[in-house]
Amino acid sequence: MIQLTEAHILGTIIAFLLGVFIIPIVIYFSDKLGLVDVPNERKIHKGKISRLGGIAIWLAVMLTFLLLVLLSYYPKGIGLSGIIVGGSLMFLLGLIDDIFCLNAKFKLFLQIAIATTVILLGVRVDEIYNPLGENISLGIWAYPISLIWIVGITNAINFIDGIDGLAGSVVTIASAAIAIISVVVTPASPITALVAIILLGAMLSFLLYNYNPAKIFMGDSGALFAGFMLSTLSITGIMSTKTPLMYLPFLILAIPILDVTYASLRRIAKGKSPFVADAEHIHHKLLHHGFSQDTAVLTLSSASMICAIAAIIITGSLNKYFVCALALACVLFFLNALSKAIKKIG
């Protein structure tokens, strides 16, 4: 019987190795089938690049999860089925969009349908902490609040996926923070930590091929899947505590939340749909001010890391968990430098 700590370690390693193995295959078939992202006036990359990285990320996460179950570690937790099924449906929606370019309103409708299904399966915020008195039971408001959070964060990750390595870095950092905090809050949610750490492993393997200049993009399939996973895992792992700590996901995901809020308000003010893509996100602003892609990613990833570490400190879980967060930062920077060195040699 695999112990929980061993499952966490195995989950990270297996997901990473699976991703490293699967991604080159996805790149190869994307090129053969013409499923590549072509540069245009809104995009800053050069050349045709695979946009199906989400396939590798989803497969790495799901195969790792299945393997851990087969190895007799059967994870049990509130909302687990909703997260797995909903994440897969969100991945499928993104994959169809990557291939056929769905209408934005229709895609939003399907996102709402998927989120609603997951909420009905138990992944929702039923109660919020009230610093002025007793906690507030949301009642019928649990649905719209949970829906806004899930759909909002899902699209927030999709919105920041605009330059090489940015979305992957933010998702990796957020996954680590959610995993760490989920095992130290009361009540603890080790299953949330396990799924989050598996996502981290898969995303680290993706980053090896996604740092500038990228060989593959995560596409809508990867961004929607990762965003959905972060939004739902933050609910089951942190927001379920019904203490002041339930607000920590706002800090952990501060960068994508600020970006999606700014982008939506800006587009609405111009009389446009908030889901119509443009080149005025935070990362675009940095590029317009003379930042290189690498510097922009480093800047926003560092800001995301600071927010994540702050959230971890707030939980009072310094010690080994704080060291884990710092170690993750070192791994990210090392992988970035290594990938660039390999590309220069090649």
Please state the oligomeric state of the protein chains shown: single chain
Q: Runs with pLDDT <50, length 5+? A: none
Strand elements, count: 4
Rg: 19 Å
- How would the global form be characterised? globular
Strand content: under 5%
In round numbers, the mean pLDDT is: 86
In DSSP terms, counting alpha (H) and pi (I) runs of 4 or more, how many helices?
Answer: 13
Question: Which bin fits the share of residues in helices?
Answer: 55-70%
Query: What's the main sheet like?
Result: 2 strands, antiparallel
Strand order of the largest sheet: 1-2
Number of domains: 1
H/E series: HEEHHHEEHHHHHHHHH
Structural class: mainly alpha
Amino- and carboxy-terminal Cα gap: 44 Å
Structure description:
The chain has 346 residues and is mostly helical. The protein has one domain (4-338). It is 69% helix and 2% strand. Helix 1 (4-33) runs parallel beside helix 7, helix 2 runs antiparallel to helix 3 (80-100) and helix 3 packs antiparallel against helix 8. The protein is globular and about 55 Å long. The chain starts with a helix and ends with a helix.
Summary of the model, kept short:
The chain is built from 13 helices and 4 strands. It has about 350 residues and is mainly alpha-helical. Strand 3 (about 125-130) and strand 4 form a beta hairpin.
